[in-house]
Amino acid sequence: MKLIPGSQALGAKILDLDLSQGIDTAQCDQLIQWLGEYGVLSIPQQEITPKQLKAFSGNFGELEINVAKVAQDPAIPEMMTLSNMVENGQPLGLSDAGQDWHTDMSYSKQIAFANILYGIKIPMRDGQPLGNTEFSNMHAAYDGLPKDIAQELEGKTITHDFNKFWEKMRREKGSSRPPLTPEQLRAKPPVSHPAIMIHPITGKKVLYANPGYSMRINELNQAASDELLEYLFAHQLRPEFRYAFKWEEKSVLMWDNMGTIHNAVADYAPHEHRFIQRFQVAASRFFPAN
């Protein structure tokens, strides 16, 4: 494998790696270290089946089955399809357009380590790809906090709620998402995590909060919590922390959910087709279940 670091706050490209052939333990360990250091890795020019992508993703930890159970291949329930395409009147996947900034699985007791996506069809306009995936660096966000804010967050916890994000997406124009069922709500009740996390790969502190799922700083009253979260959500998106990945067809993109937040840019129309396969990897190798 060959690593080519990017020039922005996050991101690197991996060359000379054929994921259809699988990876060995040494390669897996190296990719994990690079994920911790660079946050986002792209692996271009891959020819890979869903089963091969699942096998690759499974090297990094337990694979999540999304609580909403939408846009799934029954043979591979861990895979979610992100798409705006429709066939025979049925959507081929779940649209992620307009989702706003978030960190996947912060709403779960077992948080996420990595997302692994394969871009099969990418919309283009005037020779440029649409639907970029944006990221912000939570190592840098913590380091950039004023000392008094960082001290105030020490020892604090934040409640995260899956339904906050789901209801926001339901309100988006053209959304076909149904409300979560009582069973789904029971499966993913609100959970709390430390506001400041020691990143298990880098050993450094990161800000673990995001606009998509973070609801309340538990140790503060509601007004104080709302004020501080509003500040943190704005602080997280400072330009110097940011990176935008421009999709190419047949690229695999993977990122570290513990050290980044992300957002899919909704700049493409319904007729500009997008089709991406996704796996989510829980952080079980770093935080084993009790």
TrEMBL record:
GO terms for biological process: sulfur compound metabolic process. Residues 6-278 form the TauD/TfdA-like domain. Pfam families: TauD (PF02668). The lineage of its organism: Bacteria, Pseudomonadati, Pseudomonadota, Betaproteobacteria, Burkholderiales. PANTHER family: ALPHA-KETOGLUTARATE-DEPENDENT SULFONATE DIOXYGENASE. Belongs to the TfdA dioxygenase family. This is Taurine dioxygenase. InterPro entries: AtsK-like (IPR051323), TauD-like_sf (IPR042098), TauD/TfdA-like (IPR003819). One of its GO terms (molecular function) is taurine dioxygenase activity. It comes from the Bacteria. The keyword Iron applies. GO terms for cellular component: cytoplasm. Keywords: Dioxygenase, Iron, Metal-binding, Oxidoreductase.
